[in-house]
Amino acid sequence: MTGRLGNQRGGAARWIFIIIIIAAAFFGYQYFKKTPRYALIQFKKAVLFSSAETAQKYADFDSVVRSLPGSVTLGQTDEVVKKRLIYEIDSPHEKSYFAKVKGWSVIRCPIAVTADQNSATAQTAENTSVTLQRLDNEQWIIVAIETQ
Question: What sign results for the dihedral spanned by CA atoms 90, 91, 93, 94?
Answer without folding.
Answer: negative
